[in-house]
Amino acid sequence: MSTDKSWTKALFGGIWSVLNFSRKLFFNIIFLVIAVAIISLIFKDNGQIGVKQDSALVLNLRGDIVIQKHAIDPFEAFMQEALGQENEKPEVLLQDILLTLDNAKQDQRIKALVLDLQELNGAGLDKLEQIAQAIDDFKLSEKPVYAIGDYYTQEQYYIASHADHVYMNPMGWMLFEGYGRFGMYYKSALDKIKATTHVFKVGTYKSAVEPLIRDDMSQAAKEANKAWLNAMWSQYKNNVAEARGLSADNFDEKVDEFMVKFEDVNGDFAQYALENGWVDGLKTREQVLQELASVVGEEDSKRGYTNITFKHYLQIVNPPLPHLDTNVDKVGVVVAKGTILNGDQKPGTVGGDSTANLLRKARLDDSIKSVVLYVDSPGGSAFASEIIRQEIENLKAAGKPVVALMSTYAASGGYWISASADEIWAAPSTITGSIGIFGMFVSFENTLDYLGVHTDGVGTTDFAGMGITRGIDPKMGQVLQRSIEHGYDQFISLVADERHMSKEDVDSIAQGRVWIGETALSLNLVDHLGYIDDAVSAAAQLADLSEYDVTYVERSLNSSELFWKEFFSNASVMLAKTQFAQSDSKLMSLISQVTADFDHVIKLNDPRGVYAFCLTCEI
């Protein structure tokens, strides 16, 4: 027995020794990393990054272009950088791109602009329009602009079309797909698991719930979607054709028309692009390098010509310096980007409480004289939308004018929070409207019954026990539907009052129907077409400001949060990187899409279960 006890003691003692050693090793490594990082912060050379004379600014944009980045924990960002892991959804701020281009135009050290857009994923047409305008403004400096790429996606090409020289690899390709709204529908799948979908809605065109109650898109939804998609596609074609000096008829939208030209070039996408006038030349990477080197000079670097990348140039023109307050009056910008959810939410999602708190912060700041609500949202919780709108009213009551600026989306709840502004501005391509609401939940009483699981009990009222395991009584369904109808009446009444229209006129353009900005202007849903500078100028004018600064109103970080944010952002550069393989499985992408579809529904958290949300708006 004593031998057994001794053996067991030795085994567990050995295990503990290994665990204890591992624990000490881990924390010692962390300590060393932190120590090295602190030393680097103390002795770092802030002058390492510089702009050489006659450099090309390389606008190498990576990820999605947004007006606000999703919040990322500083430690998580540090670990991703340290391990060489890529952010699954990298983002670039639109305002950073515009600032960079404006500075480069005036910077005598910058001799040319190179658009390297291969890693640009997506952007709303409104954001592409603003970047294109900034490039056109840059060209007034008479500095050449080159677009280079192995291929071009539709979004990438919109920007590239504004270059003086558009080059593509001889093995490259490009194809205009146009705009479409295609999604997956799950009714049959839910039927197979005997789930019951309960839907309450108002609006002939309110199609956000269709994926769960149909196996295809309704005719009404097709009609509405086709209208705004065609309008957007017309804007895209006209803008690109004008930039390239071509006719808008040059876009081959029918396969038969395309094949005639495609046969003439023996099925060569690159040659097709050249013959059609989409690119100016087919050049290998080496040929592009040699041409750029002849303009700005050679350099012993990865690119081979004298250059500075977007990220490094941005660090120079917009360094992360602490905010210095001034006595100048300000126009405050509050960003409302993402799905509208109840409560406090991190940046990248609109929180009813958190966004309202930012508006309240602007109201209580005596230096802020007017506010721009910068909206990029397809909507969400009706309750949270109203909480935000109430703060708009409080700002106006305090004598501070409010201008709502619509970015890519300001639909449904996104329109709700904009409606009470003194002025509403939208981009010509903004997706807005979708005035309608719905309520929905899925119950599994039949699924559980099939599995032999049953729910039973008693309650003191007819309302007790309603939920996903029992479903709802038809009479209770009438109550919920009536509540939705009341919410819809609230919505159109709000729009009617704020836009000085009759409820009947609002209803005729509501019913969940989606419009783009230029159409919304003609329908009196918005006041003007423009972008952030236009909205800021309008807000300043409403407040009678001749001189002013612009400040983005954000949640204040405490001293601890500021330290760790700065600490981890600088510490990451001290670590060696190990690259991990990234999955590019089409099946995994499909699974991610399905997950994302249901994620939209799962995250919705309105306390009444009432939503002003435009799932259809996302293309």
From TrEMBL:
Parts of the chain that traverse the membrane: 25-43
Subcellular localization, as worded in the UniProt entry: Membrane
Keywords on record: Hydrolase, Membrane, Protease, Serine protease, Transmembrane, Transmembrane helix
UniProt EC number: 3.4.21.-
A GO biological process held by the record: proteolysis
GO MF annotation list: peptidase activity
Name of the protein in question: Protease IV
